[in-house]
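Lab meeting notes turned into a lecture example. A postdoc, R.K., suggested we walk through two folding results consecutively so the class can see how the record format repeats. The first protein's sequence and structure tokens come next.
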Amino acid sequence: MFLYLCGRVIDQSADDIHEHEVGREVFGRPDDYDTAADNIVRVHASMLRKRIDQYFAAEGRSEPTIIEIPRGNYAPVFRARPAGAIVPQPIVAPVPAEPVATPAPVPLPADLAPAAPPRRNWQMLLPSALALIFACSTFFLLLRTRDVAHANISIPANQVNVRKFWSQIFYAERPTDIVLDDAAVGFYQELTSQQVSLSDYFDRSYLRSLTANTAKPERDFAEPFLLKRQSSFADLGICSRLMQTAAALQGSANIRFARDFSFREVKSGNVILLGNSRSNPWIQPFEARLALRWRFDAPRGIYYPTNTAAPTAEQDKFRATAEASAPHQGYATVSLLPNMNDTGKVLILTGTGGSALNAALDFLSDEHSVSEIRSGLPQSKSNDFPYFEALLKTESRTSLPRNTTIVLLRHTQP
């Protein structure tokens, strides 16, 4: 949202951006959606204003240019920080104690140079500001996750299949690693149209190709963003729920960032991998066992599920529905596999967004829904839940499991 709004002002000289436009272009709402009934833009704009204020009042206190999003309009304004000011005031118009010639907030023309300390290009600040927003949200969610891990939560005894499924992921003997995706490496691949292999990701060699093959303006813009650790809101948002499930089974979990994970860990223990193979390369070694994979549609900027086991003409049939999805619709894939050494379990959760991922977790926490998966799989001689992959579709504004349906279910061989 922040990047879109700033781009509209700087690149297209917009001075008036409406809520309906932001809902369509940023949050994927349909052309005829009702802003009175769906307040997603207003909620996120309020959060964004607060985070921008916090940034320029703390880490960004020395920035020569202040970015503001006035209430009643979503077009950011850029103003030079008043000389001598260390901490900027909130986004309301300042009322100086003494008459001072303070410029009124206006959209910053592309060729305007800040009047204060050394000149900086505001585009160079965007990755840092965006990274800070990610970091603040990550910190808050991780604190929340730490608290829920100690909550008194239990899985009812009559949820036999739910308990059987999750007890293979979380148990008391050793913690499970929850591996968050790396939003920066996903951004890199979208910027360069180059696929990053797990080996290139692990040794960071893909960053050298950015320096060699990318024009300097794009490189200068991207490098600060790529070097910071940041994950998607969708993945962060479900961490607390996974920790709750671990606590209910007297198990524990470690939250890991993809860039800090290792081959030794993915081979040895239980792991939950969040994201897709572009944003979380640790999924790549397991794709050979999966028919359900995710592809990126660059012109539309969306990820969609594909079924590689289907005839070629039918593999991409879910792209059309992913493109035209109404609000609160989406897809998620759930895959349960053995780890690389067959000494533990790997659960891969991927979705079109936070709503789809939360719906998938609701589905996996409902006895009737998990029983539906179990009944569609072959009987096992052991007491373990069989390995499988499933494509789920959610079609409701609520998170009730009955509003999530199994589109495809496949047994995967160990």
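The second example is placed directly after the first for contrast:
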Amino acid sequence: MDLVLVGLSHKTAPVEIRERVAFPEEHLQVALRRLQTEAELSEGMIVSTCNRVEILAHGQNIRSKIVQSIKAFLYSYHALRPPFLEDYLYSHLHQDAISHFFRVASSLDSMVIGEPQILSQVKQSYTSACRAGSVGKHLNNLIPRAFFVAKKVRTETRIGQSAVSIGSVSIELARKILGDLNNKSIILIGAGKISSLAAKNLADEGIQEFYVTNRNPERSKKIAVEFSGQVVPFEDLQTYLLHVDIAVVSTSSNFFILKKTDIEKIIKKRKYKPLFIIDISVPRNVDPSINELESVFVYDIDDLQSVITANLQQRHQEAKIAEEIVIEEVSNYRKQMSTKSAGALASNLRSRIEEICLEDLRARRSQLTDTEYAQTEKLLKKAAHKIAHPLVVHLKNPDENPTRRLRTMDMFKKIFKLDKEL
């Protein structure tokens, strides 16, 4: 099987290069048909995301020529001239291509290890390739197996369970402090991009009441509409802090908006009902000494980043376990495919040896009676099967190394002139 993967990613190419070779979803099926024609491939799939563009292909040509034909397609399709991409592209052949593809699907090659988006993106790429008619028996064996490996990694490791973004960390901390977030309330103070995203993530967890306050009323209205929230006058902020559960703060102010003395009065009136405050402002808008108050929990941007760093370290530890799973599954897949190919070759091998043994007999058919021909044919077929038997047993040995098996298969194909693709 001449399997090849050619591509570039965030590890090898900056964004300005990646965007030059990206394939928009709406153009993907046309691109796949061109890929098959121009690169003379029997099968092909394109994975195009913000962090990578990769072409997984199978062809009848020798592997080095398949790689060159895929590169030529990339240059032609995107109207680029060699050697513009040469410093950024990588290529993997056969076993290395299988291993790389399994790692990509399992998010071990992602910018953020363990992120779940890449698997759904690969699945969408597979769907597009199927619709374009560029997937055959080889990729139809490999790609679903990659999905199986990705699921196994998720099931047997904790690679995706620790939060590694401001929004997901905010949710993680909110749950630890407040428990179930259903029916909780939140107020967004300010209109920073990161704070708005963090607030949106929290709101998606079941927050029932969403308030927005800003010194700019128009900006508040825009955000409130986006989150189906309610605009609150900035001067009424402390009133609303009496009953909300979460406050996300991010303004351009150079002084503390929430002061210890004010929050001390508020928490007493709340009868010490827990208040979770996220301060994403730089400089900080929340007095850090507020953390000294009972039932008030303040996390600034550095606190959140510390949690993210610790969680990333945990993911990298889990990734070591995941890598072992991938290595094992690559080996299992190769054994399965080589055994399957050996079975098909064994059948052809028996037929070919029988054909060789009967060749002279058939040439002398007119010289023999029907009885003589039938008896001789039976003896020669029996001899052919005896000759083929040890070859087939060796070929189908379940303990044979897949690489050695493939070499044996290639040797048998050449010796017995079995040129039909298996």
